[in-house]
């Protein structure tokens, strides 16, 4: 299989309604950016919308990546006139909510998502009948099969079988393919099978035997399950026979993510040693702000409120002496939480050492209230903690909850907490990451590490096959 091909796994349907305008022709241009990019990149794709009653509709397929914050901008023009405005949406939020409505002065857009790769596996067992011999009189072909998906623009290879030596009537090993990869969940949509004679040369020079385009509907309708191959240079090049065929319902990560909300709880350290890291500058975001923008915002889109909770520990807030305090009590969304963080700094008395165990129990309590949905707890700390023994006891208890707690150290070589979390007594619900000060790439590396941990934990807890 080609490793450089990115398969499209989500279909986005766009329904456009004009408030007053009555256009004759409507076009939509797409722009795109990821979390590492500052500006939208204009895509070559321009969609012509079709009118249905009072609405204009179109669909496009795209690739969703859990590890990226993917934002689209749609730009509308009509009757060969200039743009009448654009709207933005996040792909992760659309996947989770399935339905979003955006509007401006001139129009409203309804966006709906449908998973292409839903986890349904198509089991298939193929054999060949009287295949074309491309090896002359003294040998026979060494046939193998390649399977291709048509994504609306090109054929993408999705599977390749083993080759069978010296055999014109081979039987290949059975295998399974995701139905979405084969035909975008459309039983009438063709996929392609190519049959080749294997070459052992380097580089290989495989010889073409024949091919066919077929749909699942064709397969189910066939009595014989025998399908003739086509080769423009030969009147007969053999057939393929389907010995066994079955569609097996299954779950995958995207399907689970679509129906599972994520609750995000973030704890920031406010000790005297951390004061310099909380300094606000108009020139550059501090490390806590970077975390909320680069990682918090990306996770908030998987919550129905498009938000999370921000806490502090290691200091006192508004003269209230507690182990931890909530900063984002009444705010909603990334802008509100970032604003509350900035405002709270003037009312915080920075303390000495941080107590992490009460914060961990708060995250566990939130998980109990939020299950069966998934809860993530982040604890951004500077160095040593003040409740080492209690923390060790906490790690000794196994949690059977949809939860992961991730410590993020702002200084490297934090031996105390590293030795505790990495000990054998840790029951795998607490992980440790680090971020380097004044390193622009560090936050991006951290994001990738964090989202890998979260995906692995979701797969493991909900028993999702890789």
From TrEMBL:
GO terms for cellular component: plasma membrane. GO terms for molecular function: calcium-dependent phospholipid binding. Transmembrane segments: none annotated. Residues 101-230 form the C2 domain. Pfam families: C2, Copine. PANTHER family: C2 DOMAIN-CONTAINING PROTEIN, COPINE. This is C2 domain-containing protein.
């Amino acid at each position: 299989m080609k490793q450089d091909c990115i398969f499209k796994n989500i279909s986005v349907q766009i329904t456009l309604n004009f408030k007053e305008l009555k256009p004759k022709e409507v076009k939509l241009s797409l722009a795109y950016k990821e979390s590492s990019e500052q500006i939208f990149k204009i895509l070559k794709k321009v969609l012509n919308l079709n009118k249905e009653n009072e609405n204009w509709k179109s669909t496009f397929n795209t690739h969703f990546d859990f590890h990226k914050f993917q934002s689209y901008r749609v730009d509308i023009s009509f009757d060969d006139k200039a743009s009448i405005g654009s709207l933005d949406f996040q792909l992760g939020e659309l996947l989770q909510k399935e339905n979003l409505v955006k509007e401006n002065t001139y129009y409203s857009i309804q966006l709906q998502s449908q998973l292409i790769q839903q986890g349904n596996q198509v089991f298939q067992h193929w054999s060949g009948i009287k295949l074309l011999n491309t090896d002359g009189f003294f040998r026979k072909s060494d046939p193998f099969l390649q399977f291709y998906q048509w994504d609306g623009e090109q054929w993408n290879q999705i599977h390749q079988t083993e080759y069978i030596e010296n055999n014109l009537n081979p039987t290949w090993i059975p295998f399974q393919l995701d139905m979405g990869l084969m035909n975008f969940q459309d039983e009438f949509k063709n996929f392609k099978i190519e049959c080749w004679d294997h070459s052992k040369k380097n580089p290989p020079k495989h010889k073409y035997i024949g091919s066919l385009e077929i749909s699942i509907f064709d397969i189910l309708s066939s009595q014989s399950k025998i399908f003739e191959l086509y080769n423009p240079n030969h009147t007969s090049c053999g057939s393929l026979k389907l010995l066994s065929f079955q569609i097996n319902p299954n779950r995958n990560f995207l399907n689970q993510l679509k129906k599972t909300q994520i609750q995000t709880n973030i704890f920031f350290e406010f000790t005297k040693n951390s004061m310099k890291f909380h300094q606000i500058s108009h020139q550059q975001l501090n490390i806590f702000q970077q975390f909320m923008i680069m990682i918090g915002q990306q996770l908030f889109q998987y919550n129905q409120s498009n938000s999370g909770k921000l806490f502090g520990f290691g200091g006192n807030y508004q003269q209230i002496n507690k182990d931890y305090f909530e900063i984002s009590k009444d705010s909603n969304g990334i802008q509100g939480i970032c604003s509350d963080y900035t405002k709270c700094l003037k009312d915080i008395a920075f303390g000495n050492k941080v107590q992490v165990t009460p914060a961990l129990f708060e995250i566990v309590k939130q998980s109990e209230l939020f299950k069966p949905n998934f809860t993530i707890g982040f604890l951004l700390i500077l160095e040593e903690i003040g409740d080492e023994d209690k923390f060790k006891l906490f790690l000794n208890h196994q949690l059977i909850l949809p939860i992961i707690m991730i410590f993020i150290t702002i200084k490297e070589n934090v031996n105390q907490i590293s030795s505790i979390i990495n000990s054998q007594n840790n029951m795998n619900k607490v992980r440790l990451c680090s971020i380097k000060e004044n390193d622009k790439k560090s936050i991006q590396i951290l994001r990738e590490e964090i989202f890998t941990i979260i995906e692995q934990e979701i797969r493991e807890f909900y028993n999702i096959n890789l």
